Amino acid sequence: MKHRHETIEWVVRHHLCTGCGVCAGICPRDALEMTIDERRGCYVPRIDAERCTRCGLCYEVCPGDQVDFKGFSAALFGDVPEDVALGSYVGSYIGHAIDEDIRFNSASGGLVTSLLLFALEGGLIDGALVTRMRRDNPLRPEAFIARTKGQIISAAGSKYCPVPAGVALKEILASEGRYAVVGLPCHIQGLRKAERRLDILRRRIRYRISIACSLDYSFAGTERFLGSLGIAPEQVEVLQYRGRGWPGSVFVRTRDGRETTVAYPDFYKTLGPYSLRRCTLCSDMMGELSDLSCGDAWVPEVMETDQTGSSFVISRTPEAEELLENAASRGAVELSDLSVGDLLASQGHALFKKRKLKARMRLFRLCGQRVPSYRQKLLRPIPGDYVN
Question: What 3-state class would DSSP assign to 305?
Answer without folding.
Answer: helix
